[in-house]
Amino acid sequence: MASSPLSLISKPPSITLLHHQRPPLPTVRVSAATSTTMPNHHPSLEITGGGAKRFLPALNTRHHPYKPFPIIGWNRHLETIFAAFFRTVPDVKYRRECLRTKDNGTIALDWVCGDHSTLPPDSPILILLEGLTGGSQDSYVKQMLVKAKSKGWRVVVFNSRGCANSPVTTPQLQTDSFTADTCHVVDHVSSMFPEASIYGVDWSLGGNILVNYLGREYHRCSLSGAVSLCNPFNLVIADENLRKGFNNIYDRELRGDVHDEYNVQAGLNPCTVHEYDEAITRVSLGYKSVDDYYSNSCSCHVVQHVRIPLLCIQAANDPIAPIEATPYEDIKENPNSMLIVTPQGGHLGWVAGDEAPFGAPWTDNVVMDFLEHLRNGASNNNASKPEAF
Questions:
Q1: Residues 274, 301, 347, 373: which is the catalytic one?
Q2: Catalytic-role residue among 202, 318, 330, 364
Q3: For residue range 192-236, what is the model confidence (pLDDT) as tens digits?
Q4: Which residue among 134, 143, 210, 376 is least packed, with the fewest CB closer than 10 Å?
Q5: CB–CB of 375/197 below 8 Å?
Q6: Pairing of strands 225-229, 310-315
Q7: Which pTM was predicted?
């Protein structure tokens, strides 16, 4: 949850906005007793989606109950804070590569040292994109990295502009609706290893960016599969939720720190993410208001257009990515998507399973089961394609 150094230098050119007309998302309440479309799993998990019949058999943990670690896992705020500050951070050495984009932006890719010389060129590749203000040093990123590496995967962490001490060379920073950098990274990695299949795992804001990329760039997406965790999906709902009660703590922690059209004074000392986005983000992207920015950045609007296998994992008690924002119907209607909802987990917590409380989150084994299933080609044949928009 550490903040990243940010900088602004000039106003960017205007851009064409995307307007999606979608009905309001329903409020969904989840519990262990909730019935699901897939009976072949433990009732403590809610599993649904148009692709569930294809993907569910690959999950080795599907018959086991979700058991949160005592006390820590019983309260969503305690679990969220504990995971952020006390989860073990594996020792991983990186080799950094900085990419320059067409608009002179800088993206930092952190590769695991030694993989280039020890892994064959056709090894599967996993691109990790962290949440807001996160980076390659975060515990949940390194835990996932170690898990994938142990199974022979080549892993690279995609640090967004202004994150993880990456140099800031443009006013364009990490935002929910900007997919150009994701396109650039996937194309770059693909050109480096043309024989390898590439997959993506993204958390929180990174999950929203990933799903936006999958849905908006479906015609050029070269990923073979993806996983989205703790995705806020609907930023309008998430923003309202973030400003309620104890959630204000996260709102203040997640705001950007910035050392006329830009409201620089407000941007220098924002009290909330909303204030920062109003003063800085929406202006840099050409939106008339922060509400317009949030509305047009919701990945829930494009889930129906995802054409590759996609696993979404959410916690029913997530204080930052509220379950009410999850696009259940679109996930159910997309034959390439599956959703897993756990009864507890907080935000980026999931302090449960054999490695709790200090080890890898419960989700890591589920993610690897899904990715290994795709890697082995069990679900890549005759994949259904939803209609383009």
A1: 347
A2: 318
A3: 999 999 999 999 999 999 999 999 999 999 999 999 999 999 988
A4: 376
A5: yes
A6: parallel
A7: 0.81
